[in-house]
Amino acid sequence: MLFRPKAAPLVDEWVKILDADPKMWDQSAFNDLFLRGAQTTDRKDRLFKGYNGSLLIGILPVSLFCSGHTFFTQQMPLQMAAKPYVAHATFQFSGTPGKRNRFREHLLWSDPPAYYHHSQGFISVENNIPTSLLNRIDDARTDGSLAATEPHFALVNRQLATLRAEFGLATALSRAAVLPELWCGQDRWWAPHHGITPGSQLHLPYKCPADHVLDLES
Question: What is the C-alpha separation between 107 and 22, in angstroms, rounded?
């Protein structure tokens, strides 16, 4: 978030609201404030007036200032050949371990050398997914019905069977298992949807973060 000095009254009121109610969600309070009295304009730079028409407000481009969904799930910077300014580990489902793992998946996390050493070594597998399972995603229904989820579950269950065999072998050999790339046929979100998070540009099937399939906190 970038504030100019003229936005000081909004920030002051925001802080007062949060101080008055410790249970208030800071994002919700901020949204209520900047949208208060919001007005569209005829400007070509996509700015609009908010906070009772007293401030010019703009939304930073999500391909450069990425949420967890645009960066890790949609992989929008890669699709647009753009170099992002920041990646925020939101839209994930395994708490702090999930955030850390997402950064690791994209080589954005610096671990000490000891993390890459195991006394008994490592074991990895190739996640060979039948093309037929991926093709079923293209033909899947998108009406939010139970039948529409079946191709996704078939795709994920095949990979879970591979992971189960890898984890079993790693346990028997006392080695550390390396997670393979995982693919999903539907997005993961907190509410009913028709395959992708509403408003997103996700293309199915997609290479999904590990927390879309596994509970990384356990």
Answer: 36
pLDDT in tens, 71-98: 999 999 999 999 999 999 999 999 999 9
- Residues 69 and 51 placed together within one structural domain of the fold: no
d(CA 1, CA 201): 23
What residues make up the domain containing 13? 5-57
Q: Is residue 30 part of a domain?
A: yes
User: Is 218 among the domain residues?
Assistant: no
pLDDT at 43 over 90: no
Closest listed residue to residue 180, CA positions, set 106, 116, 99, 124: 124
Entry pTM: 0.85
The whole-number pLDDT of residue 46 equals: 86
Q: Are 142 and 148 in contact (CB under 8 A)?
A: yes
Select from 37, 57, 77 the last residue of a domain. Answer: 57
